[in-house]
Write a structure and sequence with these properties.
Layout (H helix, E strand, L loop, with lengths): L6 E2 L5 E2 L1 H4 L26 H12 L4 H13 L1 H15 L3 E4 L5 H14 L8 H4 L2 H4 L1 E11 L2 E9 L5 E3 L7 E4 L5 E3 L5 E5 L12 H26 L3 E5 L6 H16 L10 E5 L4 H24 L12 H39 L7 E4 L7 H11 L5 E3 H8 L19 E3 L27 H9 L9 H30 L3 H10 L5 H28 L1
Antiparallel strand pairs: 1-2, 3-12, 4-5, 4-9, 6-7, 7-8, 10-11, 13-14
Length: 546
């Protein structure tokens, strides 16, 4: 029976219900360290400052690192695009619940979790949990809801990682800053901490933003230099000319004209003066160098986040490479989904069940991921080829795989059930045409319209025509006759081979052997004649019925 009070954790220890259902703690404050206003360490970032930020994060002070990770996502469209692609890919795949066994109570636990999934609380929070891909970890505060019969999360609130520090011992356990700036440990029943490391070691050093920050900084240098290059050499240099008799007022006039023509694209000068536009040669080649460098940095980001570049950078003739890269992307999807499933099962699902039903020996398992299924094209091709060979598949399985709905049917006029239908299997033999009792057997109409080649073949193999496929039967009969003729010839050669003492003797015996191919020639002649007649009859039928 479902429990409501007291609430026990997964170890059977009672939990203070008031503390569990208390208001949130990880919220911003107007005064204090949990400020919603963030710094921007990416402004004027240099290699020495970036290295200092990473060292501080690895030493337990990740504030500037988390701020930098946010800056990179907000300033680099490519990094934001590929990182969001990876997070959205896992956020949209199916979520299922597997019961711990076939016992009715275990099934009840699984149904309880499924009912909670239907509230979409988890669906709205998966993207936030995957923020750990970039930063190494993400923290969500659980807002519990207690009702008679169950205790479930009402909401999973994303917490700004800037409000947390790392413990001084392991440098891997997040601690919440309170209103006074004191670090306090997290209540395991109130928070979900998801770690998503790209490498082994500390979580803070396993986020992709740590590696991406270097590429982003060098790319920022490239874009800055590119902008300066375009500003200096993107427009032709304007040179004003004046003669030696020009006064200071004339010089000022031509100077103002040169300056104004850049923005206004219009100016007036005396007729004795001129303006020359000098274009920089090879400026396009210099600009291409910056573009290639920036694109190269983007490709490194794609490899870092997605494991490949085919889905972000189109290349001609790369279909086969793209298929391989798609497998890499699916591998990352399975890895991300497995880590997320493990976190949810350990830190959320088991607690839900324990708070509602009491501690259990076995808990239902939440699974995030696509089922291991063959592509639809492979399934359809297999059915088309293996069905006629005897493969039988339940119709419901095929319809579910294709996303179709079976037509409602009744059994024996009743609406209580549906028969199990099978797709595939060997094609049954054609049913004989029923005789019409009103027509004498001798005048029974044929099942198919009579044709010239059909009558010809029927008359030739009338004694052997057990099936309506006359051409196949005729072919089999001629093959048997030819096999007999060939067997007679090979028997004579085999006898000489067995009687020969050596290779020279064998060659002499074969030279003296007079093989009679008359029977084989007769069979081949009949086959050629019949093939010719069938072909002519088919032409006549086509002309008659076409």
């Amino acid at each position: 029976m479902a429990r409501f009070s007291p609430i026990l954790d997964i170890d059977g220890k009672p939990i203070d219900k008031a503390a569990l259902l208390d208001e949130r703690k990880a919220v911003p404050t107007l005064t204090g360290v949990r400020s919603p206003i963030s710094g921007h360490p990416a402004d004027g970032l240099r290699p020495d400052r970036l290295a200092a930020i990473h060292r501080a994060a690895a030493s337990g002070d990740p504030l500037r690192y988390f701020e930098l990770a946010e800056d990179i996502e907000e300033r680099d469209p490519h990094y934001l695009a590929v990182l969001s692609t990876r997070k959205r890919q896992v956020s949209q795949i199916p979520v299922t619940v597997v019961a711990a066994g076939e016992d009715s109570q275990l099934e009840e636990h699984a149904d309880f979790v499924r009912q909670w999934l239907a509230t979409n609380v988890l669906a709205e929070s998966q993207f936030d949990m995957l923020d750990a891909i970039g930063k190494g970890l993400s923290i969500l505060e659980i807002e519990w809801e207690a009702r008679p019969g169950w205790v479930t999360p009402r909401c999973l609130h994303w917490c700004d990682p800037r409000w947390f520090a790392l413990d001084d011992v392991s440098l891997d356990e997040p601690l919440l800053y309170d209103a006074n700036g004191t670090k306090e440990p997290l209540d395991p029943n109130r928070y979900v901490v998801h770690r998503h490391k790209a490498k082994s070691g500390l979580s803070i050093r396993g986020g992709l933003a740590r590696i991406a920050s270097w590429s982003w900084m060098y790319k920022a240098f490239t874009l800055r230099d590119w902008n300066i290059f375009v500003q200096n050499y993107g427009m032709p240099i304007r040179i004003g000319k004046y003669d030696g008799a020009a006064s200071e007022a004339d010089k000022e006039t031509v100077f103002q004209a040169v300056r104004s023509i850049a923005g206004d694209l219009a100016a007036i000068i005396p007729a004795s003066m001129s303006i020359e536009f000098v274009e920089v040669k090879n400026a396009a080649d210099g600009s291409a160098l910056y573009e290639k460098r920036a694109d190269w940095m983007d490709r490194q980001i794609s490899k870092l986040v997605l494991g490949q570049t085919a889905t972000t950078d189109a290349a001609p003739g790369s279909h086969a490479i793209g298929s391989t890269h798609r497998l890499v992307q699916e591998d990352l999807e399975r890895f991300d989904a497995a880590l997320l499933s493990a976190t949810l099962n350990r830190q959320l699902i088991r607690k839900m069940v324990a708070f509602t039903f009491g501690p259990q020996e076995k808990y239902p398992t939440l699974v995030i991921g696509r089922p291991d299924e063959l592509p639809i094209g492979v399934v359809v091709e297999a059915l088309a080829k293996l069905g006629p060979l005897g493969l039988e598949v339940e119709e419901s399985q095929v319809l579910d795989r294709l996303g179709f709905t079976a037509k409602a049917e009744s059994v024996d006029g009743k609406t209580g059930g549906k028969p199990v239908r099978v797709i595939g299997g060997r094609a049954p033999a054609p049913a004989p045409v029923p005789a019409d009792p009103a027509v004498p057997p001798a005048k029974q109409p044929p099942a198919q319209p009579p044709t010239l080649h059909g009558r010809l073949l029927a008359s030739l193999i009338e004694l052997h025509a057990a099936e309506p496929d006359h051409v196949e039967l005729l072919t089999n009969r001629l093959s048997a006759e030819a096999a007999g003729a060939i067997a007679g010839l090979s028997l004579q050669v085999r006898s000489q081979f067995e009687a020969a003492s050596d290779m020279t003797d064998l060659m002499a015996r074969i030279d003296r052997l007079k093989l009679d191919a008359g029977e084989l020639r007769e069979v081949m002649g009949r086959a050629m004649a019949l093939a010719y007649m069938v072909g002519q009859a088919a032409i006549v039928d086509e002309m008659r019925h076409g």
